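name: query_chain
kind: protein
chains: 1
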Amino acid sequence: MASYDLIIVGGGAAGCFAAIIAAEQGAKVLIIETGKLMHKLLITGKGRCNLTNNSDTETLLRNIKTNPRFMQSSLARFTSADTMAFFEDLGVSLKTERGNRVFPASDLASDVVGALNTRLNILRVNVIADRAREIIAENGEARGVKCEKGSYFAPKVIIATGGLSYPKTGSTGDGYKLAAKVGHNIIKPKAALVPIETREDVSELAGLTLKNVKLSVNDYSEQGELLFTHFGLSGPLALSASCHINELSIVNCQLSIDLKPALDEKKLDARILRDFAENKNKQLQNALDALLPKSIIPFVINAANIQSDKQVNSITAEERGRLLSVVKAFPLTASGLRPIDEAVITDGGIDVREINPKNMESKLVSGLHFAGEVIDVAAFTGGFNLQIAFSTAFAAVTGD
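structure:
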């Protein structure tokens, strides 16, 4: 069998990035991947690919919910600015949007994947379609990878197989099994950044996107974009909010949506009064089109406990106050989280206590390294998780 300088198990964002960094340094690299390279990267950010977050290292660390201290070294060595420079050098023009989210200027994830594939080809990185079954190790040192179709040898191996989210893209948990076979502890994987099911039937709102609203749950509150689905809530706000909901106490967990966060109660009341004055002879259900999306108006009126066919000129001050309260805090009740195969990322994975944070090397098997989502590190939505993938991959290749 052929020998390599580096074998990477997993052809996702972390694995392909690591392969490029290593090959640029002259290493002979092999990627072992069961399916399509960077399949998950193609669908991130709704197909737009939120590459990173244009923020300093402290901000990046604040947005990591699981084991942020472990990430201090690698994020300091390969920052979001480094990520942006890397992709711009590949010819991918970038732009920074709300919340410092960084996207390709074209809004096409395929441009990012295409640029990475082109670079892999130029550097002659070898790619084999096979499934890794175990790490070959002798005397506590990595020697290669045993796969279904054969064995491949190298003094350095990086496991970058991802987690359990979106299994159709190849994230099937193989990395956990490989690590466990050589003695690593696996923190039980669970869904992170996952849509929220609601007790209330909001199926009639499915497809409605609310922009610049504020979602609150427990101590979490953030403004941004929210999407109604047939089962409840999705979109960036819901995904982030899911990280703040304890799975053990999710039933009857109260959610609140401020539909007009830019207006305080006094300004909102003045706005409602103005709309009422312009529509005083209309039924309430037909008088709020300028204030709210049409499809959500019946839900708001119902939550305010007002008859929808009541004429605006007969609405009492108390009823107007209830309407205002619902617009500022539209109530929903969480009843569950969607399954892990619908999660954006996996929380859990290889125990960071068994990994050297400077180079992502196993403390149990020398020459064995890890990168990306397979490690027990998870962040909120906004490009932070891909930055983790790039920073850990860089550390795994270049770290001392």
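note: The chain has a mean pLDDT of 93.
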